[in-house]
Amino acid sequence: MADFHKIDLNLLRVFQVILEERSLTRAGQQLGLSQPAVSYSLGRLRALFDDPLFIRTPDGMLPTPKAEQLAAPLGNAIASIRETLRHLERFDAATSSREFRLSMSDVGIQTFLPSICEKVQQLAPLMRIAAERVPLPEIEEKLRLGQLDFAIGNISALKPVMNSALLFHDEYACMTRKRPGLPARKLSQQKFMEFSHVAVTSTDSSYVEIDESLRASGLHRRIALRVPHFTVIPQILQRTDWMVTLPRGVAYLLNESGQFQIYPLPVELPHIASTVYWHSTFDNDEGNRWFRQLLVETLRPH
Question: Which stretch, 31-45, 192-206, 227-241, has highest mean pLDDT?
Answer without folding.
Answer: 227-241
